[in-house]
């Protein structure tokens, strides 16, 4: 099965230190929806794995998160793309869950849901914890420089084998070319 795992905030949409708390605050990064559409049209299933501790912090409800994702899916459909499923961690940093990145729990849930090995499955993120979770799950880590990505690169200590690309469109260029 052709599978790609994406982080959401800072990869697909603009990130915000104040969290994305409403559909209005969810704003696609330039070219990201078209990039996902190219993956979809090339037969890749695109799955999101996203920490959403704003739920645990009481900053927004699951209903609102669903509305945010409905907006994302609508805009993506208009661009010709599709997200197969969205996996989220609703917990906070002190909840001790197994799913909040850098833990690999969402990735192992994805592997179980799709009954696939994650070996060589590309996982794209903008934060160190995305890369760490990817590596822990056996995925191939890709860093985009959108969102927190430039800061992540500047701070160094990236996991061995991390591929670095400007943005999601550059990832797709590289991935579909390979
Ligand atoms: Mg992110
Ligand atoms: Zn969690």
From TrEMBL:
Q: Where does Zn(2+) bind?
A: 89, 91, 97, 99
Q: Where does Mg(2+) bind?
A: 7, 9, 126
Member of which family? Answer: Belongs to the gmhB family.
User: Which Gene Ontology MF annotations are present?
Assistant: D-glycero-beta-D-manno-heptose 1,7-bisphosphate 7-phosphatase activity; metal ion binding
Q: Which organism is it from?
A: Eoetvoesiella caeni
- Return one Gene Ontology term, BP aspect: carbohydrate metabolic process
The alphabetical list of record keywords is: Carbohydrate metabolism, Cytoplasm, Hydrolase, Magnesium, Metal-binding, Zinc
Binding partners and assembly = Monomer.
Q: Which positions does the site annotation Stabilizes the phosphoryl group cover?
A: 50, 101
- The primary site where this protein sits is cytoplasm
Q: What protein name is recorded for this chain?
A: D,D-heptose 1,7-bisphosphate phosphatase
Reading the lineage from the top rank, the first entry is Bacteria
Q: Which InterPro entries match?
A: HAD-like_sf, HAD-SF_hydro_IIIA, HAD_sf, Heptose_bisP_phosphatase, Histidinol-phos
């Amino acid at each position: 099965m052709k599978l790609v795992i994406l982080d959401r905030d800072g990869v697909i949409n603009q990130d915000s230190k104040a969290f994305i708390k409403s559909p209005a605050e969810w704003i696609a990064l330039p070219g990201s929806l078209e990039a996902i559409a190219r993956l979809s049209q090339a037969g890749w299933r695109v799955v999101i794995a996203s920490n959403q501790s704003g739920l645990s912090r009481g900053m927004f409800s699951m209903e609102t998160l669903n509305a945010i994702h409905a907006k994302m899916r609508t805009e993506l459909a208009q661009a010709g793309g599709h997200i197969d499923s969205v996996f989220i961690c609703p917990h906070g940093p002190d909840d001790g869950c197994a799913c909040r990145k850098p833990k690999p729990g969402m990735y192992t849930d994805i592997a179980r849901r799709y009954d696939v090995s994650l070996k060589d499955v590309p996982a794209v993120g903008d934060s160190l914890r995305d890369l760490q979770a990817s590596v822990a799950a056996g995925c191939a880590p890709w860093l985009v420089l959108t969102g927190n990505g430039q800061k992540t690169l500047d701070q160094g200590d990236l996991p061995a084998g991390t591929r670095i690309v400007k943005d999601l469109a550059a990832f797709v260029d590289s991935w579909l070319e390979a």
